[in-house]
Structures are given as C-alpha cells and as structure tokens.
C-alpha cells in the first residue's frame, strides 16, 4: 500500500511533458534524456542507419562507379581516404555518436614477386615480363638474364655495384658484360588504372645462374603511388569534388 502511494505521488510530481530533458554537451551536441518514475534518466538516441560492413571492390573504377551512381546516401557528403598504395576507403562524415561510416573499400589486386630472393633465370625472365611494366632497364635485364652463358657467375672485378657475366652476343660468340646497377624498374604495385611508380633496385646474380632484385629506395615509391591514386581520383571525380560531395584525403 505504501509503495503504491509513493508511486502515485511520484507520478503526480512529474508531468509527462516534464519527463524529457534537453541539454547540450561540451561539444555543442544536443542530447535528450527521459526520466522514469524512480528518477533515473536514460538518453534517447536518434535512430542511425549505418552500413554493417563496407562494400568491397578491387578497382578504382568500381569505387568511382559507386560514387557516380549515387544510389545510397544521396544527400550525404563523403571522404575518399587513400589509405595506402593498395587501399582506398569511402567514408561518411561523423554521425551524432562520433563514428564515421565506411561504405566502400577498394583493394588492389597486385601480382606477387619475391624480392631479395634469387630466382632461376627462366623464372626471372617470366616475372620481369609479366609483373613489371616496360622500362629501358627492364629490357637490359631481360637481355642479360636471357643470354647468360656461364653457370658460375664471375665474381672477379665485382665492385659491389656491378658484376661481370658472359652472355651470348651472336651465333657463335660470347662477350663479358657488366650487369647494370642500380636499375630503374616499375613493378605492378598499385591499382592498375594509374601509372606504376618507378624506383631504383639493386640487381645481383650468382651461381645457377640465378638473379635477385633488391629494393633500394627505402620505400619512397609508396608516396608516389599514393599521389598517383589521388591524382587519378581527382581527375575522374572533378564534378563531385567541385560540388563538395567528395573530399579526397591522401
């Protein structure tokens, strides 16, 4: 009986329209709370529609197609984040909960090549032709690797920068040549729609004969790859960037 009376008095003391309290937090965000019969308060959060998981594509063309189709979030603005040379995220702006939705992720499919590993000449020739874009130094390496005559690559005169090898230069002739170093190559290392960044490599040969390629630019090519992806997206999304619908971050 006493419990019911207290509840009755509490119900009388707080009118229905007084159970809702609006406030603004230190970040300037408006928040609404509801007070129950016991004086406890709970926040009323707005209904937020957020993607459970991002759509995954493997090309920048797919990402651009999604943005231009404008099928979802028509009134929303987006950030295109070039996360690294192989990954681009399409993200929304911060919602009221301080979260940023990821709608699409583009992940480049890159052919694998084992750097710092000595490959047999046939394997290396195939890799140079299928996993590297044409450059003058690539053609030189193909000529050297494809025409090596001796099983034991000579170490005499090896300065650490160049090696001497014997290659076939005619039907019945062979000459000693210096293996070029360093060489400028452009492997497939980012999205195929953009120019592959060139960088310097150290090329070495040894008994077998076998050859290996060592990266020699400290990873600086990644910055160039990211810039190439950014420039490509800016070119293809000129109108969306101009209208403020898309902002590119790289």
Summarize the structure.
The chain is an alpha+beta fold. It has helices spanning 2-13, 60-69, 121-130, 136-146, 221-236, 238-242; strands at residues 20-24, 30-35, 41-44, 55-57, 78-84, 87-94, 100-107, 119-120, 132-133, 163-168, 174-179, 183-187, 199-206, 210-215, 246-249.
In which range does the helix fraction lie? 25-40%
Could you give the distance between the termini?
68 Å
Give the number of helices: 6
Q: What would the average pLDDT be, to the nearest integer?
A: 80
Spans of 5+ residues with little confidence (pLDDT < 50)?
Answer: 169-175
Instruction: Write the H/E string, N to C.
Output: HEEEEHEEEEHEHEEEEEHHE
| Cross-sheet strand order for the largest sheet | 4-7-6-5-15
Overall outline: elongated
Structural class: alpha+beta
- Characterize the biggest β-sheet: 5 strands, mixed
Strand content: 25-35%
List how many beta strands DSSP finds: 15
Radius of gyration: 31 Å
Task: Describe what you observe in this structure.
It is built from six helices and 15 strands. It is of the alpha+beta class and 250 residues long. The strands form four sheets. It has a five-stranded mixed β-sheet with strand order 4-7-6-5-15. Strand 1 and strand 2 (30-35) form a beta hairpin. The termini are far apart. Residues 169-175 have low confidence and may be disordered.
Write the layout of secondary structure elements.
Blueprint: H1 2-13, E1 20-24, E2 30-35, E3 41-44, E4 55-57, H2 60-69, E5 78-84, E6 87-94, E7 100-107, E8 119-120, H3 121-130, E9 132-133, H4 136-146, E10 163-168, E11 174-179, E12 183-187, E13 199-206, E14 210-215, H5 221-236, H6 238-242, E15 246-249
Parallel strand pairs: 4-7, 5-15
Antiparallel strand pairs: 1-2, 2-3, 5-6, 6-7, 8-14, 9-12, 10-11, 12-13, 13-14
Helix pairs in contact: 3-4
């Amino acid at each position: 009986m006493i419990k019911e009376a207290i509840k009755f008095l509490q119900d009388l003391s707080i009118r229905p329209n007084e159970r809702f309290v609006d406030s603004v937090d230190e970040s300037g965000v408006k928040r609404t709370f509801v007070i129950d019969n016991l004086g406890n308060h709970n926040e009323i959060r707005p209904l937020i529609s957020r993607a459970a998981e991002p759509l995954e594509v493997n090309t920048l063309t797919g990402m651009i197609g999604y943005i231009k189709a404008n099928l979802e979030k028509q009134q929303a603005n987006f950030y295109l984040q070039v996360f690294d040379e192989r990954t681009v995220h399409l993200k929304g702006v911060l919602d009221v909960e301080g979260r940023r939705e990821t709608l699409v992720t583009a992940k480049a499919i890159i052919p694998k090549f084992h750097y710092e590993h000595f490959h047999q000449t046939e394997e290396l020739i195939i890799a140079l032709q299928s996993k590297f874009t044409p450059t003058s130094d690539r053609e030189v390496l193909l000529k050297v690797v494809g025409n090596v005559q001796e099983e034991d690559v000579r170490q005499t005169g090896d300065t650490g920068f160049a090696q001497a090898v014997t290659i076939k230069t005619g039907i019945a002739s062979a000459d000693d040549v210096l293996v070029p170093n360093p060489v400028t190559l452009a492997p497939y290392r980012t999205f195929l729609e953009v120019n592959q960044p060139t960088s310097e490599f150290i090329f070495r040969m040894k008994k077998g004969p076998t050859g290996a390629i060592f990266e020699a630019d400290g990873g600086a090519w990644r910055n160039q790859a990211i810039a190439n992806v950014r420039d490509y997206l800016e070119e293809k999304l000129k109108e969306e960037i101009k209208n403020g619908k898309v902002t590119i971050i790289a």
